[in-house]
Amino acid sequence: MERRTIGAAALSVGAVGLGCMPMSWAYSRSRQRGDESLRAVHRALDLGSTLLDTADMYGPFTNELLLGRVLKERRTDAFVSTKVGLLVGDQHIVANGRPGYVKRACDASLRRLQTDVIDLYQLHRADPEVPVEETWGAMAELVQAGKVRALGLCAVGVRGGRRAGGRRGLYEGTLRQLQRVQQVFPVSAVEAELSVWSPEAARTLLPWCEARGVGFLAAMPLGNGFLTGTLTPGEGFEPDDMRARHPRFTAEMMAANQPIVAGLRRVARRHGSSVTPAQVALAWVLAQGRHVVPVPGAKRERWVSENAGAVGVRLRSADLRELGGLPGARGSWD
Predict the structure, then answer these.
(1) CA 12 to CA 54: how far, in whole Å?
(2) I want to staple 223 with a disulfide (CB 3.0 to 4.6 A). Which of 40, 127, 211, 227 is the partner?
(3) Is 58 a catalytic residue?
(4) Alpha carbon of 139 to those of 106, 107, 286: distances in Å?
(5) Contact 197, 167 (CB under 8 A)
(6) How many whole angstroms separate alpha carbon 31 and alpha carbon 36?
């Protein structure tokens, strides 16, 4: 697989990564299968999708434990990205950015992942009660201690700003955080949602990253599954599936957003009968910059293989213009 680099340290990863969250968190629990997920991770590594993206809160903890079973055998094949900063309680999630906690959490992640170093350690969310410089400083000490190779920041998009001033303000808070932590220790990667139906980060965060040689991990590049064209409006989701509460996944909005999937299908057909809408959606993300690495979530070998195949789909200028001209995604907030 084509390789891409992350950060000034030129950390090398496969051009398409693997988001491991669906294996243990946020999607229908009844469809989670540990053995099936293990096979999916092995398949990703076989295909060169080396970046495995997880977090201590996924499960919580069970996602890291699952990956640890693979890493115990294949650590040299993988690039491990995990996250810190969020605690999962009973019906709530809270941020914790206290330096002492960050260091303890790192040690716990290392044990669960069965490794002695984390390639990319990301701040999942900043703690509003702790200056972000203090949290980032503790993470930098982990690099100096040899427990972590590089640091990243997960972006938070505040959609409420759309009404006040359009989409330009979606990531203003994250940009301010990046400017602050960059003064403490270099940022190697930023992770944020980026897809055909959520392109805002390409206009705001991505230019910041490109100007500084910072890698960009594109989260949810398949729109939580919508852009694959495999979801049927009105089929519903299990109560524990985050899409059951997502404003773009009501039956009405899924139907309204079908022109986006139709556009992906049109482009896919021009590239051959075996090319899928999902692969076109990932190819669009790959075309946004040479340091952009999509990390589609998957828990089955079939989807991992399909996602990895997107590297071979080379979109032409006309394809990119057509995809750029698709109607904006609608949600129930609109």
Answers:
(1) 18
(2) 227
(3) yes
(4) 9, 12, 29
(5) no
(6) 10
8 A C-beta contact, residue 209 and residue 239: no
Return per-residue pLDDT of the chain as tens, 334 residues: 999 999 877 899 999 999 999 999 878 776 778 899 999 999 999 999 999 999 999 999 999 999 999 999 999 999 999 999 999 987 789 999 999 999 999 999 999 999 999 999 999 999 999 999 999 999 999 999 999 999 999 998 765 444 334 445 789 999 999 999 999 999 999 999 999 999 999 999 999 999 999 999 999 999 999 999 999 998 889 988 999 999 999 999 999 999 999 999 999 999 999 999 999 999 999 999 999 999 999 999 999 999 999 999 999 999 999 999 999 999 976 5
Count of residues in the chain: 334
**What's at 55, amino acid-wise?**
A
CA end-to-end span of the chain = 40
Amino acid (one-letter) located at 50: T
Closest CA to 132 of 185, 188, 189, 181: 181
Residue entry with tokens 């064209």: 229
Global pTM?
A: 0.95
